[in-house]
Specification:
- Helix content is 46%, strand content 5%.
- 22% of the residues are buried.
- The radius of gyration is 18 Å and the shape is globular.
- The chain has a 3-stranded mixed beta sheet with strand order 1-2-3, with helices on one face.
- The protein is mainly alpha-helical.
Length: 156
């Protein structure tokens, strides 16, 4: 662990007081997925592709999601930097809608075309994307990002 910004007096590779008191360091944060990100078709495609890459059924995927959320050793923050908690009602809604989970998260998205999230499914998608982002920060850095010289649509 490097120097913790929450306590600048903590030397490198030492444990900060917050960690000792709470069991996790506030330095490990994941951001809540925003409406703007959910409106980005490529971001949605990348979330769905990542979720489908686990090759799990809907029930197993929901259990994995809940376990990842429970085991995340940090904080999830909103765009103002305030810690937020994914609502239990949203997680229960996800668990109750296994058909939606099977279609949305356990099946690869189409490679082309615009993807959108219906209004009634927006909070479920936000919860899934936020938990997956928290559990996989290295991969999530590139969700929705495409190269500027992407020539997929150009004929050769």
């Amino acid at each position: 662990m490097s120097t913790c910004p929450s306590n600048s007096l903590v030397p490198r590779f030492a444990i900060c007081q917050f960690y000792l008191n709470h069991g996790y360091c506030r330095c490990r944060v994941a951001t809540l997925v925003t409406d703007e990100e959910l409106s980005n078709s490529e971001f949605v495609r990348d979330i769905r592709s990542h979720a489908a890459s686990y090759h799990l059924g809907a029930e197993q995927f929901v259990l994995k999601l809940l376990n990842d959320y429970r085991d995340f050793p940090g904080a999830i923050v909103n765009d103002q930097g305030q810690e937020v908690i994914v609502a239990l009602s949203v997680l229960e809604d996800i668990a109750a809608r296994l058909d939606w989970v099977r279609e949305w998260a356990c099946t690869s998205p189409p490679p082309r075309g615009r993807l959108h999230i219906r209004k009634e499914a927006r909070e479920r998608a936000r919860a899934i994307a936020t938990i997956l982002r928290a559990a996989n920060p290295a991969k999530a850095r590139f969700w929705g990002v495409r190269g500027t010289n992407d020539n997929e649509d150009r004929p050769i």
